[in-house]
Structure formats: structure tokens, C-alpha cells
Amino acid sequence: MLYAESRRRRHSLRCTLCGREITLGEEYWACNGSRVCRACLPDFARQELSPCHEIHGKEASL
Question: Could you tell me which residues are beta bridge partners of residue 37?
């Protein structure tokens, strides 16, 4: 039983952005070395996609 308890602790995951534990069975996103919980996904996506950000009418010309 002690082995099972220590094994469970070793496999705990934490969200890279907020530090909250990602519990067993909970969905999360793993991208570019980050693990992101559902609550942080919009902020993470915004950060990751910031190089693609455009404003209509002010697009960068090639």
C-alpha cells in the first residue's frame, strides 16, 4: 500500500501556467514542453499564437 501511495504521488502533474494539480482522469494539453489545464488553455493559446496575430486592415506586408 505504501508503494502504491508513493507511486501515485510521483505521477502528479501540475499546470505549467497556474501550478494547479491536474488530477487523474482530468484532461490537459501538452505542447512545447508545457502542460496546461483547461482553465489556462485560452491564455496559453493566446501566448503560443501571438506571432500569428493580425489586425484586419493592418496586416503585415510580405
Answer: 28
